[in-house]
Amino acid sequence: MDIKNYRISPWQWLAFLIVAVSLRLLTGSFFMALGIFMLLLLVDFFIVQWENKRRDDDDEPM
Fold first, then answer.
1. Which residue in 8, 34, 7 sits closest to 20, CA to CA?
2. Where are the beta strands (DSSP E) in the chain?
3. Is the pLDDT of residue 1 over 60?
C-alpha cells in the first residue's frame, strides 16, 4: 500500500481533529498526546492492511 493511495475524507479529518484535541486536554501534554495519536494511526494502518489482505484472500477461488 502506497501512502499516495491513502485517501482521507473530510469526515476522517474531523474525527482525527476531535481525537487529537481530546487527547491534548486529557493528558495535559502535547508530546504525550502526539505519541498516543501516532500509535492510534499506526494501529489503524495495520488494521486496514489486515482487512485488505483478508478481503483479497476471500476473493480467490478455491
1. 34
2. none
3. no
Sign of CA dihedral 22, 43, 6, 60: negative
Identity at 34, one-letter amino acid code: L
- Read off the C-alpha cell for 1: 500500500
Tens-place pLDDT, residues 24-39: 899 899 899 888 888 9
Q: Who's near 32: CB < 8 A, 6+ residues apart?
A: 23
- Grid cell listed for 22: 481530546
pTM above 0.70, yes or no: no
Whole-angstrom distance, CA of residue 57 vs CA of residue 28: 44
